[in-house]
Amino acid sequence: MQIPSKISFLIPNLLMIDDEQLVRDVESRLPSLPIAYWSKHKNVVQKKASCARYPSIFELEFNNIYWQTLRSSNGTFQLFGAYYDIRKRSRIGPAVRILGMIDRIEPRVKTFCQLWFDGQKEPFIVKTFEYKYIWFNKWGNYKQGIYQPYLIACQIPKPFRGLVPASVSLVEKQCDTATNNLRVLYNRPLDDEKRGFAVCVKGLDFLYDDLSVRLVEWIELLGMLGADKVFFYELQVHPNISKVLRYYEEQDRVHVTPLTLPGGQPNVPGFQHLFLSKKTTHKRQNELIPYNDCLYKNMYKYNFIALLDIDEVIMPSRPEDRTWHDLMERVVAKGMKLKNDTYPSYNVRNVYFFDRGDQHEHEWAKDTPRYMHMLQHVTRAKNYTKPNQYVKCFHNPERVLTLHNHFPIACLGGTCHSYPVSTDDAQLQHYRADCVRTLKKSCEEFKENQVRDTTIWKYKDELIQRTRHTLDVLGFFKPSSTGGGGGGSGSLLRGGKDSLYKR
């Protein structure tokens, strides 16, 4: 047998990147890490200092990838992000606000903020101004040892006002070498012009539920309503959901931030889902981190920020209001007549559009594909949930300090007054199989008294076209199909049990 003189092997090319490219890659994966600043100044700031020295990024204590740790003499801090706040209504003036969780209620330990400014060899150190609790004790879990959400304020000293700190560390003793160092985010548009509406979505926990087709319909509808961008946080999701999110990220219509739970909470797929489904109060407390991170990353970029779940839509009620911009022009003007000022938030009443799953109890709309979940569900509870219960808001980021799922918890300049939007102007359409657990007693009444509501159909033709196009591009239709299951360009590929979607 003749042995070839040369043998060719298929060996993948190794990707060679320089330090600068590596820094950019790490910064994109971990935006809270000031790796670019450290890389630029490491030969200067790590020299011996009279007090605190700048910590090497290799000395930082990370927790569950995205969190940085301070272990104090009375409690452990898990820090997620830091933000530069120069909003005019802030009574403490320019500040850095740090978002994180502390395993203490009413933490009493004294801490200090080491503020690092570009070009400074040593930090400027200030005492922590406050720990702002992003929770109410009546909601539960009000005991030591459970991680509680906080917003920590570091006041910028007068000599440095006008300068944005590059990073901040939280320490117990002023001159400690920190075990955490957070890049201070200041996402201000170059032209200082705000866009209209951002939507923030809490950590997605859909490892086993393939909601990809419903997600496409939802994102397309939000775009038609005027959402400039949707900001998702991702815990664990089905591969098809990832495919949808990547598609919209490439179009710059959504942004996805990976997320973990801090401390000893589980992050193993499956186990995390079980934990969140059984430990609902822990789940609610953890949700406040992505909500407030989304607020502070976008407070200079948008006029309004809405916190929505993917089964909710704020729907303008009047036929002439096609977009949220149309709606809010009317609503803000009404509010101004009452107090001659804008409100921190504008809340919209919740109403249920019940989903019976496979037991589809209403007639299918023949001119609408069956996979269009919202367009096919046009029967709702006659009555809305009570005012201020289960509402969702358009938040004014110039006025709110901390946010809860349903309303602001704290506001700048005083009490949080929320303007109630009339149901004649808008409603929160909530697509669920059942009421939330706390409404169990009144849920049967909601289900027994229902009315037909086709408000969403004013978007029908365009929404079908947009959704169909996206599903086609994503390859979610059977190639050989010509029928549309009620109007589509093809039948959706089926997945496992109870799924209409491709796996």
UniProtKB/TrEMBL annotation:
Residues 482-503 are annotated as: Disordered. InterPro entries: Glyco_transf_92 (IPR008166). Its EC number is 2.4.1.-. It is an enzyme of class 2 (transferase). Its main location: membrane. The keyword NAD does not apply. Belongs to the glycosyltransferase 92 family. This is Glycosyltransferase family 92 protein. It comes from Anopheles christyi.
